């Protein structure tokens, strides 16, 4: 004879989250180790682990794209600084000797 193990019922959200209020974006997730449940800490809704993983994956991709944009802006700023530095050096009438400090007269 087989033994039937009773499990308590758990509500699981669908992947579309169409029935959940649109006010919560479910950005603050909490993992409940007992039962492997993903919950939103803001609205206390049980979420689909697949939905949570795909949402985190999208956030990661957006963050990486933002980092790439910031890196390119830094490279452009560095190039502009070097260009302006060269222009400033060209404007100076005579180069200072490296041994003298700017406070020496």
Description:
- With 105 residues, this protein is mainly α.
- Helix content is 41%, strand content 10%.
- The chain has one helix at residues 49-91; strands at residues 29-32, 37-40, 46-47.
- A hairpin with a 4-residue loop joins β1 (29-32) and β2.
- The longest helix is centred in the middle third of the chain and has 43 residues, at 49-91.
- The chain starts with 28 loop residues before the first strand and ends in a 14-residue tail after the last helix.
- 3% of the residues are buried.
- The mean pLDDT is 81.
In brief, what are we looking at here?
This protein is mainly alpha-helical and 105 residues long. The protein has one helix at residues 49-91; strands at 29-32, 37-40, 46-47.
- Indicate the percent of residues in helices: 40-55%
Reading side by side through the largest sheet, how are the strands ordered?
A: 1-2-3
Radius of gyration using CA atoms only: 29 Å
- Averaged pLDDT: 81
- Please report the number of helical segments: 1
Percent of residues in β-strands:
5-15%
**Which spans of ≥5 residues are poorly predicted at pLDDT below 50?**
none
Order of helices and strands: EEEH
Structural class: mainly alpha
**What distance lies between the first and last C-alpha atoms, to the nearest angstrom?**
102 Å
How can the largest sheet be summarized? Answer: 3 strands, antiparallel
Count the strands? 3
Q: Choose one word for the global shape.
A: rod-shaped
